[in-house]
Amino acid sequence: MPDATLFRTDDKPVAWQIEDELVPYPLALKKMKNQVAEMAANGVQERVWLLEHPPLYTAGTSAKTDDLTDPDFLPVFEAGRGGQYTYHGPGQRVVYFMLDLRERGRDVRAFVRTMESLVIDTLAQFNIEGYQVDGRVGVWVKRPDKGFGKEDKIAAIGVRVSRWISFHGISINLNPDLGDYKGIVPCGITDQGVTSFEDLGQLASMPELDSALKLSFERHFGPIEISKAKF
After folding, report:
1. 86 in a labelled binding site
2. Residue 80 counted as an annotated binding residue
3. Burial class (CB in 10 A: 0-12, 13-18, 19+), 140
4. CATH number reported for the structural domain that contains residue 115 in this entry
5. Is residue 122 domain-resident?
6. How many domains does the chain have?
7. 171 a known binding residue?
8. CB 174 within 8 A of CB 198
9. Binding site annotation covers 8?
10. 7 part of a folded domain
11. 29 an active-site residue?
């Protein structure tokens, strides 16, 4: 996949914030919606929010009832983003992108492609070869140890755009409990699996992953500014 960038023409930095504690999903959704409204109405600074959620499932706008195979296993939340069912939980880095696409080309496909490039670039810093698959959103790795042609998803992407302001984003599996995926068909894909850094034998800490994400974000989206105020 060719390298992708989506810089602002004015080079204004994006507020970058890392949350230290697990964030309940409804609270995160509320904060994102408020941020999007403020950005659309008042032009407040763009923001990228890195966090972890308690164990839960979210349903995108294309979620199919049959893909929720165990409705009682974990709490389920309507996300309002594109895509189907996905899992969030401790050990998974969630990155929410609240970016103004009016300043970044007004091209949602290019935005998603650039997010995938960011993830692939981040994985490469840990010697993990991720790639895009035509017709699927997200980032994948080959798993020859599981059989010919097998591949696992290591990062999911789901976005929503309102008045050209994005929210939701990406989730990268560092070391979550992969058994928690058993209550859903992840992203509606039945013939491939999910993996993580740990599952691939790559041990890294969350701060190390965050540092790699920061470098990749600056490469693909432009400068950041560490946020000193709580979101």
Report:
1. yes
2. no
3. buried
4. 3.30.930.10
5. yes
6. 1
7. yes
8. yes
9. no
10. no
11. no
Residue keyed to tokens 């692939």: 120
Place of tokens 């009832």: 65
Selection from 1, 61, 7, 3 nearest residue 223 by Cα: 7
Sign, Cα dihedral of 68, 25, 181, 214: positive
Q: Structure tokens of 30?
A: 């509320």
pLDDT tens series, the chain, 231 aa: 446 899 998 999 999 999 999 999 999 999 999 999 999 999 999 999 999 999 999 999 999 999 999 999 999 999 999 888 999 999 999 999 999 999 999 999 999 999 999 999 999 999 999 999 888 889 999 998 888 888 999 999 999 999 999 999 999 999 999 999 999 988 666 657 899 999 999 999 999 999 999 999 999 999 999 997 777
Catalytic residue among 36, 79, 187, 212: 187
Amino acid at 200: L
Domain that holds residue 96: 14-226
Q: What is the pLDDT of residues 68-109, one digit of tens each?
A: 999 999 999 999 998 889 999 999 999 999 999 999 999 999
Strand pairing class (56-59; 76-78) = parallel
Give buried/exposed letters for 203-212 (b at 16+ CB in 10 A, else e): ebebeebbeb
- Is residue 9 in a domain? no
| Angle formed at CA 163 by CA 159 and CA 168, multiple of 5 degrees | 20
Q: Which of these, 115, 200, 102, 107, lies nearest to 151 by C-alpha position?
A: 200
